């Protein structure tokens, strides 16, 4: 994706998603200017409409997951709601189809644990929330879980650590799809101190 | 507010609000556990319902501003939408009433520029987004604008720098209303590297 066309992001939300897992990356993506090729976000859920987050406030889904034909970046946040969905075969089938139809799948926090339940992460390196790392490892033993990493890229899968790590990963994705200077400009616009080195993990498990 | 009762947060949104200005602080607040006294958030707007952010995705307002009788922390995000509202006398009167009825008013990014338009910041020290600091200063010449500060506390007004600075300020407010250890625990849960020193401003104007 070297051409400068608009990046299409699809972000999946569900009851009990973590606010910053979703809106941290969407803020960084949203700060890409038109002259930087721009970016369009669609928030997806089982159906369109308001969806309650783990901390309380609701986000809005613009469209149903089934109506999306895949995107450049499929963003999967974490949150307490992942616990139920990991055992929901209908939801997992929807998520798997979307992931297969998308160019990059990017997860934040326990979003990787949820995504691993589709089986697509098996045999891949990945990371997740560091406070519940044992539980994550146990839930998907066929994934090569990395205990010290702010984010991990393995093929089309990019998984990040807990909550705030999603913003560092989002800037990495901007650098990957555009260039490093663009990512640095976006970080400055957001007055965000980018942890640019994925091996620097202040919260390693 | 030394007693350990639930902290009531009211967060004002409007068309063109910046996502992270709002959801960064609400994530930190939302990570306060029940045993830490807890916190309840109500998202407010001119009326209840979905409200489109500057980067695109919509947030949901739970209630109308006029139906709120004040709160412990009134949170005012920034965003491109502040430009119009700064000249909207009806909105400013609503915001002023809410601010006067609340114990703490906390702003993020150009939220301070919007709030200053009520006149309540006149004679107070405050800060704001650093990329448009000249414009902020010009828009409210009777405020003592501080060009180098991650956030500024002056009486009941706490104003923070651009976008990401709201998360540092939110952790400061948790430390203020609870204690420093609670704020450090919340930061760790969010895997967030807290800039705890308000005088350390990597983006000073």
Can you characterise this structure?
Two copies of one chain form a homodimer. Chain A is an alpha/beta fold. The first copy, chain A, is 31% helix and 21% strand. Chain A is built from seven helices and eleven strands. A seven-stranded mixed sheet of chain A has the order 5-2-1-6-7-11-10. In chain A, helix 1 runs parallel beside helix 6 and helix 6 packs across helix 7. Chain A is globular and about 45 Å long. The model of chain A has no long low-confidence stretch (mean pLDDT 96). At the A-B interface, helix 1, strand 2 and strand 4 of A face helix 1, strand 2 and strand 4 of B.
Assembly context of the chains: homodimer
Largest sheet of chain A: 7 strands, mixed
Provide the β-strand percentage band of chain A.
15-25%
Name given to the CATH homologous superfamily of chain A: Class I glutamine amidotransferase (GATase) domain
Strand segment count of chain A: 11
Tally of separate domains of chain A: 1
Cα shape of chain A: globular
Quick rundown:
With 205 residues, chain A is an alpha/beta fold.
Spell out the blueprint of helices and strands:
Two copies of one chain form a homodimer.
Chain A lengths: L6 E6 L6 H12 L8 E7 L3 E4 L5 E4 L1 E2 L8 E4 L5 H4 L3 H12 L3 E4 L3 H6 L8 E2 L6 H7 L4 E2 L5 E4 L2 E4 L4 H13 L2 H10 L16
Parallel strand pairs in A: 1-2, 1-6, 2-5, 6-7, 7-11, 8-9
Antiparallel strand pairs in A: 3-4, 10-11
Helix pairs in contact in A: 1-6, 6-7
